[in-house]
Amino acid sequence: MDDDQGNMVEVYRYFKLPILEAYETFGNDLSEKTLRAIKDGDLDYSKEIEFVHVVLKRYERDPAKIDNLNKPYASYYVELTGRHIVSESGFDRIPYLTPRWSKAPEETYGRSPAMKVLPGIKVANVMARNILEACELAIRPPIMMPANSIEGPLRTSPGSLIYYRQGTRDFPRPLVSGANPGVGEALLQRQEARIEQAFFLDKLRTPENDRMTATEIMQRRQESLMFASPMLARLYSEFLDPLIGHTFESMVRSGVIPDAPESLQGRSLAVEYRSPMATSKRAAHTQSFMQAMQATAPLMQVNPGVIQNLDSDKAFRDIFDAQSVDPSYLKDAREVEMMRQQQAQMQQAAMQAEVQQRQADVGLTQSKAQEAQRQANEPNQ
Question: Per residue in 108-129, is it b (16+ CB within 10 Å) or e — as a string?
Answer without folding.
Answer: eeeeeeeeebeebbebbeebee
